[in-house]
């Protein structure tokens, strides 16, 4: 089995531009393996958010090839995208909580979208809110939550379905160091359960907190590979489509 | 079962995904006005149809024989002869000479007291005979009667009553088409209003829609959220519109009943008509939800 075949995500010479501007991502090639933990780093404007958008299927590239979960997602019909998105958990930099839903309902949203019975929704959501320390704020609307609390709700919403791929854009940007560590532990726990995790961050201290993590560095839209992990990926598991 | 649970059933899973999603704004009021106007137009059309049907059935076998003769004695003789001939026929159900008093009342608005009843028939008026045939009046039966009367009552003129009212029926039919046109126009306007509201709501809720898409929501699930929201507005608006329209219909009904006119009295609404009227808000809800669904699906198709 080749590395490309076993990867949960495979990018090959991917380029992305918005309108007629220059490419924000150029010739990006890498493979993400199941059960791996990646940090995506780079200066502001390096293309981290654009790369994450491709990963959570919010954008299609201008060129190149992307395979996810064993399928070419560029030519995938629109109608099949939701099924793929349900396998991906996303933490947005700006949280994107639904403003008129409570913290509980925001976290429950992916389960309800997936069609889970209401009776089965309550316990995992309550457990998840307890885990992120917001069980006492379950009925609070996002506008009444602090930035850090909103971020924890967003993270709880992203991981509630135990996704195969977790994509997080600056997930610890608005929380104190203790909570940041706690959230990283949550990501690490998910990772140990088999979820592939990609965390975009500016915080270099964070990189040391997850010892087995791999680093993807973007510089002006091009991907560098300082640890060699993207060229010689570790074989921690194999993905079956 | 509570109203809330009924409302939740309307949107199925949509109610669970976004339970508080409402379009609010003027939408319920717009739908209330549209429903009200549609119900009034429909009730008007149905009442006209009933009026025309009753009038047709009443005069279907009706004939009027006029004996137009200036000489009173000769007029009376020919009228009596005509009555005798008509009464002897098997296909005639009834024959009645319109009395001079009735005749005077009929022409009084135009000729005043100097008509048939005044000063020993100062103005000669024809003798009128109201005839009811068994079955409908046909051209062949009319020709037969005319030829029968022509020899012994040459001054007799035989006319089908339906013929006199043909222009009235024509006008009623036109009004019915007008009512139907209004109902269709109002339905189209309602659909356009819902289309605009759905487009506006799509813009306002763009962020929420994006989130639901990113979490794996399908176009159909998102459309269901809008369907439910618009369906709830349409239910509220439809109910209010129906109540308003029923008030107007009952008020108009009382006023027309007060006219005491035989023609207008036939324009009431039957049980089937009331069922049709009650269906208007339901049809409005269905139309609004369908329009919302198609609008949202068409808009979402342009996104990834």
TrEMBL record, chain A:
GO terms for biological process: cell division. GO terms for molecular function: ATP binding. InterPro entries: AAA+_ATPase, ABC_transporter-like_ATP-bd, ABC_transporter-like_CS, ABC_transpr_LolD-like, Cell_div_FtsE, MacB-like_ATP-bd, P-loop_NTPase. Residues 9-239 form the ABC transporter domain. Gene3D superfamilies: P-loop containing nucleotide triphosphate hydrolases. It comes from the Bacteria. It is found in: Cell inner membrane; Cell membrane. Belongs to the ABC transporter superfamily. This is Cell division ATP-binding protein FtsE. It comes from Alteraurantiacibacter palmitatis.
From TrEMBL, chain B:
Signal peptide: none annotated. Keywords: Cell cycle, Cell division, Membrane, Transmembrane, Transmembrane helix. GO terms for biological process: cell division. InterPro entries: FtsX. The keyword Cell division applies. The chain crosses the membrane at residues 29-49, 175-198, 234-254, 274-300. The keyword Cell cycle applies. This is Cell division protein FtsX. It comes from Alteraurantiacibacter palmitatis.
